[in-house]
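Note to self: keep these together.
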Amino acid sequence: MSELFSKANILFMLDGLKLTIIISLTTIILSIIFGSILAVMRNYCEGKLRFLSLFATVYIELFRCTPNVLWILMLRFAMKGSAVYVGILSFTLFTSAVVAEIVRGGLNSLPKGQFESASAQGFNFFQTLFFTVFHKTFRIIIPALLSQMTTIIKDTSYLKAVDIQELMRNSSVVLGSARGVAQIIALYGFVLLTYFALNFLLSCIVREYHRRIRLPGSSL
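Structure:
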């Protein structure tokens, strides 16, 4: 067992964990940005800008109704360049569609008349959106975003399929030196606990933050 969990093997798996965290954080940030844009396009683009709403609708439904691993494989073999960048791109494209629906749900849960009341105070559409609407929306949707964040971290294991050296891929390399069922179970147990610790820590941080900034009277 000591050979399986040697210093070199542990450092090798921790390098994979580092890349998992980098990919996850980058995807989370980009997905929140692009997902919010898609949500606004789908919700508020009307008249001459209705084509943007239709584009957002088609985009969201396309990615939500297809598996993430399909996009990972397709983009990896269709695009040249760094495998890590392609992995981040595929995750961002997919996750932005999911985040868009989360944000849209938050937008639709706000009381009617947000834009009218802000307009009466002299705010234009974008000022109202950034200083009033988004401020309240993101307080409401934090629990749903947390769920999606943990999903992103877990789903980075799909990147093993295109040989990106994240945690699961590096652990699988170490698995090649395992001898017997006990060592295999021990290694997968180590991977399980690593994913659990990472997601549990994230959950604790986000829940504490949500508790501190929760809207008065909100049950969320």
